[in-house]
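Problem: given the chain below (133 residues), write out its structure.
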Amino acid sequence: MPVETVHIQWKGEHALESRLPSGKVITIDSAGPKPLEMVIASLGGCAGLTALAFAQKMRLNLTRLEIEVSGDLADGKVPAIKGGRLKYRLWGPDLQKEQVERLVELCEKYCPVYQTLKHAGPIEHSYEINPAS
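Solution.
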């Protein structure tokens, strides 16, 4: 079974440096993005990359893509994600409702972050089709 390992090192004060398997380095500190913000952004980024990959395979004439992601946080001393929403906004001259619905289904099925977070609570989706821009 594959394993993803991230190495995290304390860099002083409230700063941590994360070395990712890709070789990239992310600093997490009190001034930067909060960890839960990064989880929510990861869901949107994963869904977006998945959508772009499948849009290409489906030969969709996609000219623009935006995704708005909302994470619902549980009440309590420790905030935790208990669900959320993804709103896909797609632009293209000839996008059809059925194609976009299939694209969203594929995103939900193949996005690893979605597959991970759906166990925390329901993740709803919606979409908006716009003419080419």
